[in-house]
Predict the 3D structure of the following.
Amino acid sequence: MHTGFTLVEAMITIFIFSLVMFAIMQTISTFYTYNAYSIAQSYQVDQARRGMEVLIRDIREMTFADDGTFPLERMEEHLIGFYSDVDRDDSVEYIEYELASTTLLKRVYDAVGTPPVYGSTPEEVHVLSEYVQNLGQATTTFSYFDSNGNRATATTTVTDIVYVAAQIIVNIDPVRDPGEFMLKSSAALRNLKENI
């Protein structure tokens, strides 16, 4: 009697082992491919949530500019421009949040000189969120409201606005699941005299 495998038995064992390993590797590969997409989507949603928190905090702290300009400067569907002391240095900065294609940007402009003048080139540019699908879905990013709760129209002036709402739709690949995620938030302009 001989113990051990014959050459044919060893080859069959190796073949079966290889098939099982191939099946396991394919399953693991598919699992990680699917989860990599979900993890990437979750990461972008988390980044968007943090960006929205910064945006709303800055809007709440909106105040008159160093040159006396009214706190809210620009109010467009995908761009808001206002004055706020975002770096807490006792000098008010001009801030713009803009949805440029699928990226939500924050631009910071410092006042320089006496009397203070705000430049045309930002001192800082921050990416707050990527893969924002608002433009592709014809969804406004910023909405503006007066003291009666009425949404701003073409005849509304910046001095009428007391409340700003923001929403962004995040989806790293619009044709795949898990699909889009919408973040919404809002803020009252609390440093205006009529809001105090």
Summary: DSSP finds one helix and ten strands in the chain. The chain has a mean pLDDT of 88. Residues 31-195 form one domain. The chain has one domain: 31-195.
